[in-house]
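Please predict the structure of the following assembly.
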Amino acid sequence: MLRIYQRLWQVNWAEQWQYRANLLMYLMYWLVSPIVYLAVWTTVARTQGSVNGLTVNDFMTYYLTLLIVDNLTADITIHLLGYKIQDGTLSGELLKPVHPILTQTLVNNLAFKALTVMVLIPIWLGLCLLLRPDFGAVTLSSLLLSIPAVVLGFGINFLMGATLTCVAFWTTRVYSIGELYWAIIILFSGQFVPLDLMPSFIQRLAQFLPFQLFKYFPIQLILGRLSTPVIVHGFIMDVVWFGLALALFLTVWRAGLKRFSAVGA
Amino acid sequence: MHTLKLLATLVKLNVQQELAYRTDALIHILLNLTWLGWELLSLSILFSNTATLGGWGPGELIALLGVFRLINMLMAALIWPNTERFNSGVRDGTLDYTFLQPVNSLFLISFSRIVIWRVWDFILATILIIVGLRLSGDSATPLNVVSFLFLVASGAAIIYSLWIVMIAFTFWFTKFDNNVTILQALLEAGRYPATVYPVWLRLIVTFVVPIAVATTVPLQALRGDLQAWQVLGFLGVGAASVFVASRVWKAGVRRYSSASS
């Protein structure tokens, strides 16, 4: 099994290099929104000293960490798989004796991530030089603790994205649903603003939804801003949602395959 | 007159195409409303934590959202679908048929695909601008409103011209068909006043990819932040960019030598 992943990694990694020119364009999408919100909230914090206890530096470190974490936990399954279900090219992958989503799609996701992070890091360092944030609150233990949070966050995001893409087995097209899902993620994940500034009912809801596990939870963990009970709560949510997402994906996938009648077959 | 008739025909053609996917259009309108809800929610979160953003009040930011949505509509209704068509035309050589028509090629390239349901977006943007104007109230003199409207039009013209130049570059550098993405990626910066951005970002969205010229600048005129010479200057840039774009386009077309030859 490990050999299969190794081989798939080599293929996908080489494939990613083919599209390196497009990479810069994708990165622009990733970069612009956090930088815009960073500018907006630091402006507000600067005029009134702090916003709800958050200082200029708190906002800078939050959005700069978001840039990295967002990339690490991002999932592009809908773009990798959506069209394959639509035009039937999935059939070829189904013939292989391994689960196509948990091998090919997963590794493709990871290879894309590895390359974007490689390009992102120099840009990120440049931004740090420009903005001069103080990352003093980050400790080795907070970084180590964030590793399982990032891995589980990506795992849940990936499984949920894959489940959503499986809706294409019934509807053929999934991009509209995907956009709606994306709007929900932005709202509850802490992409726009640290969740502390959201209305309290959204905060309470977000605690029990999986979306904050993609961004807000790992970011705050890295920045050492969470108390022990909150950290424990976050990890429990991580494990519970990972289990739920895996079960949901496997069920929907199995049901979907029965419905799948490849185009042109 | 002839051009108007042609435009009407193209609209009719696109309406017919769209009617085949009625549910799709309906879903898109619902999605669009969801995004509006999200945008208003984020503004309300912002203003529940502060009274002004770099001196801009809620009314002004709602009007800015309206202008941002207008530019977004220009991208989604015309620029994207026609870029797709243009790129595939260059690749497979069907662009020849466009040039063979006895009509201005620039006109055909810009208007052959129109995503009709986006008219809805136009209405929504207009409502947002009017509501925003009402909320920001007394500061807007009639002269400010007029320069605002002219600057929106000239800002849209600048974005359009930039697009024409970008796709015309394909005639010189064939592997250059991804450049329009950069417009879309930076568009997000049009949601908020560029005056709050760090200097380097402000320079990029003003001079490199002039999103801010089409969004922030008209609002600045409305707030009375701009001198008369600045307003005239931006309008001049708008007119000049259309002129330059049409020259670049003509030069590009002269270089064009189909896909197969």
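Chain A touches chain B at residues 21-22, 25, 28-29, 32-33, 35-36, 39-40, 43-44, 47-48, 51-52, 130-131, 176, 179-180, 183, 186-187, 192-193, 197-199 (CB under 8 Å). The first helix of chain A runs from residue 2 to 18.
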